[in-house]
Design brief:
By secondary structure, the protein is an alpha/beta fold. The chain is 56% helix and 9% strand.
């Protein structure tokens, strides 16, 4: 991404994927990217009304996609032309970007730009075999490993490779929670919608599901997926699944699904070694047109050990600091890039545990109180703070945060985050408390 327009075009395409065509054409048309710094991304819209709609209904989604595209978190600012006090020349119209075809989404995820090392070579070889249809026994292919180690890159590389070779192939990629959401919506809309849902999945040539662990504990979803799996498997159609743990460790998964997940090949991806981490940094820098000195690449690789996504995010942040804030490509700038991208270089589950423990200790409650149903004012305040901090420090979805807190609905989590943000703006004491907790979490608790 070499310009603010390139970034917005990529975000716009993904927004068009996320929402129906009516919503996309109504609310995202006319949005113009204005500027981007290492901390802020600014958009301009024609009217104050459109600004309010984007802020109130779509800002969380825009921020999530924006963070994924540029690789590090920024603040989103939206201004309207109506609110500009000074008369400005009419800007060049933003070229309308048609919603992308499925074959183009995430097109940068390929085998060619995946760095292979000792930690992932078996998984990469298995994915290539599946993509080239050279190994029928790898069905299903089940890849597991911690967040940020390249599972999503590999599964999307399979899809992109297959579709480039044969665009007529019916290949579908989605996440486990998206399968659940689609099924629930189909059930609520009646018999014809449910029939259409089943036909969508059972007539595929290849089904790729990321984070399949999220169907665990959902009885109706597992029932539906069981039949979908059987139909595809018996028809010799390929199934590829990823998870943060092997099937036997997904405790809320039904036994009949667990055994089916173990029918094919199970392979893992581990944290990359130092040499692989340096190679990843250099490859990402090269793609961004950035010449990182060897000592700076080594410095970054020595400090980010367990997460490829964080490595790439740190390089993107370094690029922003260099090109937007005019900082030198040295160790000091690299330390800022790392600090801004990392939350002390831990996996999301470990980070969540740290937040829960720190908040519980700060408010003199227990972790069980926070994640349970206790509703005293002290527990409610602590729970709201914990939800806000987890959202800020991990960037995971509201639905996933809801699962941490006993299955709370994603709208409840969203409300808690918004309410806490408003209270922080009104209370310096609360803002200071939250900053102290986040500092303790980053320091390791």
């Amino acid at each position: 991404m070499n310009s603010v327009q390139d970034v917005w075009n990529a975000v716009y395409q993904r927004l068009c994927d996320a929402y129906n065509p009516t919503a996309a054409s109504t609310w995202f048309t006319g949005v113009r990217p204005v500027s981007m710094t290492s901390t802020t991304f600014t958009l301009e819209v024609p009217s104050s009304f459109q600004k309010e709609i984007l802020l109130n209904r779509f800002s969380d989604t825009i921020l999530a996609i924006l963070t994924e595209v540029i690789g590090f978190p920024v603040e989103l600012q939206i201004q309207s032309e109506e609110e500009q006090e000074e008369e400005e020349p009419e800007p060049e119209p933003t070229p309308e970007v048609d919603p992308p075809e499925p074959t183009l989404t995430h097109s940068d995820y390929t085998f060619e730009n995946f760095i292979v090392g000792s930690s992932n070579k078996l998984a990469e070889a298995a994915c290539r075999a599946v993509a080239n249809h050279t190994e029928d026994s790898f069905n299903p292919l089940f890849i597991y490993g911690a967040s940020g180690l390249g599972k999503t890159h590999l599964i999307l590389a399979i899809r992109n490779s297959v579709l480039r070779r044969d665009p007529s192939m019916k290949v579908l990629y989605l996440k486990g929670d998206e399968f659940t959401n689609e099924m629930v919506e189909a059930i609520s809309m009646g018999v014809s919608a449910r029939r259409a849902f089943r036909e969508k999945y059972r007539y595929l040539d290849m089904l790729l599901i990321d984070d399949i662990q999220f169907i665990g504990g959902k009885e109706s979803t597992q029932e539906e997926f069981f039949h979908t799996f059987n139909t595809l498997y018996e028809g010799r159609r390929q199934i590829v699944l990823t998870s943060d743990r092997p099937p036997k460790e997904i405790k809320t998964l039904e036994e009949r699904l667990r055994t089916r997940f173990e029918w094919g090949l199970i392979t893992d991806v581990k944290p990359p070694d130092l040499e692989t981490r340096i190679a990843i940094i250099n490859r990402k820098a090269e793609n961004l047109g950035l010449a990182i000195p060897p000592e700076v690449a080594d410095y970054m690789a020595q400090r980010i050990k367990n997460n490829i996504r964080q490595l790439e995010g740190a390089v993107k942040k370094l690029k922003a600091l260099y090109s937007l804030d005019k900082m030198p490509l040295d160790q000091n700038t690299a330390s800022i890039a790392i600090r801004d991208v990392l939350s002390e270089n831990v996996t999301v589950p470990v980070l969540i545990d740290r937040v829960l423990k720190e908040v519980a200790g700060y408010y003199t409650v227990t972790v069980e109180d926070l994640t349970g149903k206790k509703r005293t004012s002290q527990v409610a305040q602590a729970r709201q703070v914990a939800i806000y901090i987890i959202h800020e420090m991990t960037g995971i979805s509201f639905q996933r945060i809801g699962e941490v807190f006993g299955g709370k609905h994603h709208t409840t989590i969203m409300y808690s985050c918004t309410k806490t943000q408003e209270e922080m703006e009104a209370s310096e004491n609360l803002k200071r408390d939250i900053e102290e907790i986040m500092m303790a979490v980053r320091s390791g608790g």
